[in-house]
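for the writeup, i need someone to sanity check this before i put it in the appendix. the sequnce is what the collaborator sent (i think, or maybe the updated version? ugh). structure was predicted straight from it, no edits. if anything looks off just tell me and ill rerun, i have time this weekend
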Amino acid sequence: MRDGASSELRYPTGGPQDKRLGYSQLESYVHGLTARNFSVAHQASWSPELEKFAQDNGYAIYREKEDAGLTLRDRTGAAFYNARYPERVYEDFKAVPPLVVSTLRYIEDQSLLDPDHPRRNPAVDWKRLAVATASQAAGVFDPDLRQGGASTLATQIEKFRHYPDGRTRNVNDKLRQMMAAATRSYLDGPETIAVQQRIVSTYLNSTPLSSRAGYGEIIGVGDGLWAWYGTDLLEANRVMAEDGAVSPRKAEIYKQTLSLLLAQRRPSYYLMEGRKALGELTDTYLRLLAKDGVISEELRDAAVAADLRFLADPPSPAPVSFVNRKAAASVRTELLRLLGTPSLYDLDRLDVAASTTFDAGAQERVSTVLAKLDNREQVKALGMVGQNLLGNEDPAKVNYSVVVYERGADRNFVRVHADSLDQPFDLNSGAKLILGSTAKLRTLLTYLDIVARLHDKYEGMTPRQLSAVAAKAGDDVLTKWAVMYLARATDRGLQPMLDAAMQRRYSASPAESFFTGGGVHVFANYEKSDNRKMPTVEESLVRSINLAFIRIMRDVRNYYLAEGERAQGDDPKSVARLDYLKRFADQEGRTYLNHFYDDFRGRTPDQVLAFLATRSGRSPYRLAIVFRSVRPEASIDDLRGFLGKQLPKTSLSDRAMEKVYNDADPDRYSLVDRAYLARVHPLQLWLASYLQDHTQAPRSEVLKASADERQAAYGWLFKTSSTRKQDVRIRILSEQDAFNEILKDWRKQGYPFDYLVPSLATAIGSSGDRPDALAHLMGIILNDGVELPTVEIENLNFAADTPYETRMALNPSAPKRVFAPEVVRTARRALMSVVSEGTGARFRGAYVAPDGSPLIVGGKTGTGDNRFKSFTAGKRLVEARVVDRTATFVFFLGDRFYGTITAYVAGSDAGKYHFTSALAVQLMKSLTPQLQPLINTPQTTDHLASSPKGTVPAITLISNTAASVH
């Protein structure tokens, strides 16, 4: 091995084992990983002789592995996941029953293991080679004479492992196989008895035995016995080693083993449709083996009498607890992305070891607790039953997720990634959950960041200039407050300004209605006692007061609205205003078209027309408008037939019918006018017409074709007499633009989705989040506003102890500043208050530092009681469908550790539960015995957090401020 990449290494090309173990794809893995911040740390360095040999033969010669597969190691190097393939192998020659050895020698190579020839070349059987050569030559004149082959066990192993599809294509292939096998035989010197023994066990472990749906490729006699007959290799070895009388089971297992040794010749045939032929061939060999004294007559007779009972279906895999394998599942999913392997099946068969950042001990301890939380006595013992916790509900329906990270010098490490969901799904990183008031943390940081930006923008202005800015601020309360603060401040530093911003007061009254999200909304506080309060921003976070944060988000929204309005101008005919109206027409038109498309989908043209007729008024004239708009070329007789079906009790004279027909001429009216006359939506009328000639049009085609019609349908909106209606719609779109700007802020924080609900309700969680994304934000806060990459995999070691060995190490992306240090220090102080005196108070004092002193902690709680509610126009509730319930706590522990803990109930069952975020906090407190050992682990140079240039280590800042704050 040498540092960096090796220039002389030659990767193998096409053998089944080389592909299965990933050796032939290794070059592409290296290129792909290099593009993902990995680099080759060490790689095998070849001698000129090995390089020349590989060039001639296509692959290197070395002591190959009997089994291999994916290994995952934790931070200490201990393996917590170890896939091996084949799964059932003979560890060495001594593990092979003598009966199997003698049988294999009889079938394949009777001169093998001859003690009288300790230096024999096991790659060549000279007699067989001579016969095969003669038969090939004779076959030129008579094809029937081309029989027999020169393959030995050693050459067959080369073929199985290193040649395309495990086949010998021509004479050159055979010669290369013999050369490679001979060279491999003398790796340990001239004595080959030990090599011959290894050839026996290697052959038994590597012979291909077809494949089965639901199981995969079957390699080796051990896996073959299990996959085809359901016989375990350990049992087979024990039974075949028995002395004395031949038991029926011994005869059966011996016959199974013999059948697999013979099936190797044509495995797909013999083990699938040719099973009868395989049975006959096996019986023939049983008689030959007994005749030549390899087996006893007793064993022969018992084995001939035994049936080859193939399993109808492959054996079911052993039950797996997904709860105990969430860390492994997370890493394997990441490896799929990094390596681009097709499936976990293929990934597990690669010869690669991944060094991860997990702490296997803590992971196991936490997973063990989570696995027991379906038991009522267990949740009681952990203090998780009571007010705002679990009551008499079924604890088995509550799922929990716990993730803990550690801050490092240039990266953050995943230490624990566990959940109680016994499924592959990952609650922590795979779900979009309404996590309630945890969104207030994101809102607070956006608020403080805006204050910091305003500080940077205006701190250099004079009081007179600042007063002028305030006069023009309008509804932009934040800008107005910022400039007035700076105009009066004796200390214009950022930290004093942020401290003042945290002391601004907001009403918590629920009496006000808010125009947001396209309509009028009202909100409520969780605690009614908060309704009459006027809390500060800090108090609002500590006590998680909804209405205060609705109003904070309103100020944030209005800050961005003001920027957009300044660009729009006051002229009703301005380009910006017209653009807004066009956007609204296009956007709302798309919404209606999607609804109408769903109504018409799957219907024939006649059914579409009939369906539209039911939406129109039941008068001949309105129906005629609908009919002629959809089918403008139709005749008067066609209209008569249509009206006869729709209005069977109405009869029109010929003259009346002619008048209705002419009055409904589509050329007389615009699309909008016809829709008005017919009492249907213009886009519904247009779509019905379009689908007459484009019956299979996909949704995308319909939306593209309707661009002009969408604008025409809202022509009324562009008239200056509709100024008030225009203002309402412009307000809706400008709010969407404002929330797009807020989304940019949240994306910097690590928000995982590409859309925010354009509503003030986003401040209390309506846009959803993910636990791991919240933890990512907490990592930024803990690291003084600098974003570090979060790491699960640090090193990958491919093909260890082979000439292809390649060790790759992660070079994390550069740290990136997201917030000013003062912003996150201010937020961190408030998060400490949440634990010391707010909604996370039960967490206070739960953990201690390694020296036994109280650990400085902070966090933010969130509860989500999520229901879809439908109301009448009079605000009467007509339906409330329960979606789920969540409780989340995002936290930091000292200056090293942080994470999230989430409780979750899905579906209608959630309506029976009444827990709040207190449940998540209590579980985190109850996990102290499982997590305290992790906290006590000493910091090493790899894990020690170093603050970015110009910042103060987080723990020092927290310690210095704690006394003055509390």
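The domain at 93-305 is CATH 1.10.3810.10 (Penicillin binding protein transpeptidase fold). The chain is about 50% helix and 10% strand.
thx in advance!!
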